[in-house]
């Protein structure tokens, strides 16, 4: 039903993700009680699995729309965004949770790590479509896409450090983090993902040389690649989020941009097909009582995170990002770092492993705040950026 009005929705202040969240609230147990996810089993496990699948599909879609040459030409800037910028955002988020909610430091660090990464699923509508192409410079769109794909997987490192310290003796936690988490879960996952992506691309090229594959099956092939990568991550018990993005990124390095143009558009449609249900599911499991327990501190945290987690960091790093030419572009990138499906995944995973409901209470509130704020401001700020850059260009030419 949302798809039938998708063209009008793209020009409205009510994006599909926000409408899906609202529908979930309406059909959930708090309103019409048509769907009760709690009755189907463990809510944390259900949301974790749904988010993992949605992320897997979304991350391959992100990789397909990034030109193969982009990471090679902009690797310094990308390392800065997924390295220093991410550390700073984690530190700011941790400080905000610690000061506003008054939680113990390492619990605050865990929640701060969960809400640090930019979500690739929620970021996709911002950087795709005709309006984005007309108003947002191409390098900015690619930077947001690459960052949102890479830092979700690397967020695993930031999430598991406080988790291990909370659940193990400190010395044992650090050793486990350096050996198991860093070397195996992240290092091996990256290498394994690169190998899967390379192998999948070469097999596709071999099939095309032999004229053995129909064009319409190429989309099915890329979706299967996402599912294979997710399954491989589970099989080796590693960071499947990073593994999927690594597989997609290597696939794009081998397959040329022209050859994957149709897959890119098709993959975006598949992304929407999986993204809408996860936001409906989220609406049915929102912890209203937990939010009330947080009180005004919870709302203050959401506002502070949205305003302070990313915009100051991007403004600070702007001189080192060669494709970010103006403060307007830096603020645009800083504002549009949505918190969504990746946070659902990590929050559900950590709540399940720690048994601490405050993780879900705080993170779900931040997710809903992000869905509302970024959803409502997406179209207006995109047009505002286009007008601003157009005025600056006209002024420089005049």
TrEMBL record:
<feature type="transmembrane region" description="Helical">
    <location>
        <begin position="217"/>
        <end position="235"/>
    </location>
</feature>
<keyword id="KW-1133">Transmembrane helix</keyword>
<feature type="transmembrane region" description="Helical">
    <location>
        <begin position="294"/>
        <end position="317"/>
    </location>
</feature>
<feature type="domain" description="Cation/H+ exchanger transmembrane">
    <location>
        <begin position="6"/>
        <end position="383"/>
    </location>
</feature>
<feature type="transmembrane region" description="Helical">
    <location>
        <begin position="78"/>
        <end position="100"/>
    </location>
</feature>
<feature type="transmembrane region" description="Helical">
    <location>
        <begin position="359"/>
        <end position="381"/>
    </location>
</feature>
<dbReference type="InterPro" id="IPR006153">
    <property type="entry name" value="Cation/H_exchanger_TM"/>
</dbReference>
<dbReference type="InterPro" id="IPR004712">
    <property type="entry name" value="Na+/H+_antiporter_fungi"/>
</dbReference>
<feature type="transmembrane region" description="Helical">
    <location>
        <begin position="186"/>
        <end position="205"/>
    </location>
</feature>
<keyword id="KW-0812">Transmembrane</keyword>
<feature type="transmembrane region" description="Helical">
    <location>
        <begin position="149"/>
        <end position="166"/>
    </location>
</feature>
<dbReference type="Pfam" id="PF00999">
    <property type="entry name" value="Na_H_Exchanger"/>
</dbReference>
<protein>
    <submittedName>
        <fullName>Cation:proton antiporter</fullName>
    </submittedName>
</protein>
<feature type="transmembrane region" description="Helical">
    <location>
        <begin position="12"/>
        <end position="29"/>
    </location>
</feature>
<feature type="transmembrane region" description="Helical">
    <location>
        <begin position="49"/>
        <end position="66"/>
    </location>
</feature>
<feature type="transmembrane region" description="Helical">
    <location>
        <begin position="241"/>
        <end position="257"/>
    </location>
</feature>
<keyword id="KW-0472">Membrane</keyword>
<feature type="transmembrane region" description="Helical">
    <location>
        <begin position="329"/>
        <end position="347"/>
    </location>
</feature>
<feature type="transmembrane region" description="Helical">
    <location>
        <begin position="269"/>
        <end position="288"/>
    </location>
</feature>
<feature type="transmembrane region" description="Helical">
    <location>
        <begin position="106"/>
        <end position="128"/>
    </location>
</feature>
């Amino acid at each position: 039903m949302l798809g039938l009005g998708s063209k009008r929705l793209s020009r409205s202040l009510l994006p599909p993700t926000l409408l899906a969240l609202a529908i979930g609230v309406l059909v959930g147990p708090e309103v019409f009680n048509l769907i009760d996810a709690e009755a189907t089993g463990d809510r944390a496990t259900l949301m974790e699995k749904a988010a993992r699948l949605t992320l897997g599909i979304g991350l391959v879609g992100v990789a397909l729309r990034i030109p193969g040459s982009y990471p090679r030409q902009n690797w310094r800037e990308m390392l800065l965004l997924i390295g220093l910028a991410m550390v700073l955002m984690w530190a700011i988020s941790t400080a905000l949770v610690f000061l506003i909610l008054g939680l113990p430091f390492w619990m605050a660090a865990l929640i701060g790590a969960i809400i640090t990464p930019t979500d690739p699923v929620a970021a996709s509508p911002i950087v795709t479509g005709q309006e984005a192409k007309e108003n947002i410079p191409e390098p900015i769109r690619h930077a947001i896409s690459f960052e949102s794909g890479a830092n979700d997987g690397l967020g695993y490192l930031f999430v598991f450090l406080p988790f291990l310290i909370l659940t193990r003796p400190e010395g044992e936690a650090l050793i486990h983090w350096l050996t198991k988490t860093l070397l195996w879960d992240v290092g091996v996952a990256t290498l394994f993902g690169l190998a899967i992506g390379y192998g999948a691309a070469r097999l596709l090229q071999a099939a095309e040389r032999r004229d053995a594959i129909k064009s319409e099956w190429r989309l099915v092939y890329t979706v299967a690649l996402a599912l294979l990568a997710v399954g491989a991550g589970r099989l080796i018990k590693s960071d499947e989020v990073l593994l999927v993005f690594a597989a997609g990124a290597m696939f794009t390095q081998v397959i040329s941009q022209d050859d994957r143009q149709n897959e890119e558009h098709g993959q975006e449609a598949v992304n929407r097909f999986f993204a809408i249900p996860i936001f409906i599911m989220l609406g049915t499991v929102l912890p209203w009582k937990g939010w009330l327990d947080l009180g005004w501190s919870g709302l203050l945290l959401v506002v502070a995170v949205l305003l302070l987690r990313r915009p100051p960091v991007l403004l600070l790093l702007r001189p080192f990002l060669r494709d970010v030419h103006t403060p307007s572009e830096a603020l645009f990138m800083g504002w549009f770092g949505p918190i969504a499906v990746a946070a659902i995944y990590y929050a559900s995973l950590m709540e399940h492993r720690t048994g601490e409901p405050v993780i879900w209470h705080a993170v779900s509130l931040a997710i809903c705040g992000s869905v509302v704020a970024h959803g409502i401001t997406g179209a207006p700020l995109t047009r505002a950026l286009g007008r601003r850059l157009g005025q600056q260009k006209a002024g420089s030419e005049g």
